[in-house]
């Protein structure tokens, strides 16, 4: 099976996006970062490639959507605790991100999220168990 994941996300202002994610507490891999894109390290073998819109257009003939008005998908990341979920959302808010909804508590799973400056939705979840069987 797969050993790594790279989620490619177009961004309008690469420098602004890098500043945002660094303020949230993430790092960038300098080997995969230049003026066209930045390799955002999300965990062991988990990456988001933030690509300038101009560079992103070289990979697809399709129109890039405006993530502030449309949803093409979202990134969901697991966290070690509810506190980590809430701390990351608080850091994103303080860095200028928006919070599209209230936290969701399903008993076995707790989630909350934020939108980055380009409107990409990042959902953070902590799972304390498995869902109940019906």
TrEMBL record:
Domain of life: Bacteria
Segments forming domain VOC: 3-127
A Pfam family recorded for this sequence: Glyoxalase
InterPro entries hit by this protein: Glyas_Bleomycin-R_OHBP_Dase, Glyas_Fos-R_dOase_dom, VOC_core
Name this protein carries in UniProt: VOC domain-containing protein
């Amino acid at each position: 099976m797969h050993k790594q994941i790279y989620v490619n996300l177009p961004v309008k202002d690469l420098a602004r996006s890098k500043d945002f994610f660094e303020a949230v507490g993430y790092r960038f891999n300098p080997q995969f970062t230049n003026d066209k894109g930045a390799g955002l390290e999300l965990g062991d073998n988990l990456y988001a490639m933030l690509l300038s819109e101009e560079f992103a257009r070289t990979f697809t003939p399709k129109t890039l959507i405006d993530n502030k008005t449309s949803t093409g998908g979202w990134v969901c990341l697991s966290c070690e605790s509810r506190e980590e979920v809430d701390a990351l959302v608080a850091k994103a808010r303080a860095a200028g991100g928006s919070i599209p909804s209230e936290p969701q508590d399903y008993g076995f799973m707790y989630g909350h999220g934020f939108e980055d400056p380009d409107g990409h939705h990042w959902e953070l979840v902590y799972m304390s168990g498995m869902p109940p069987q019906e």
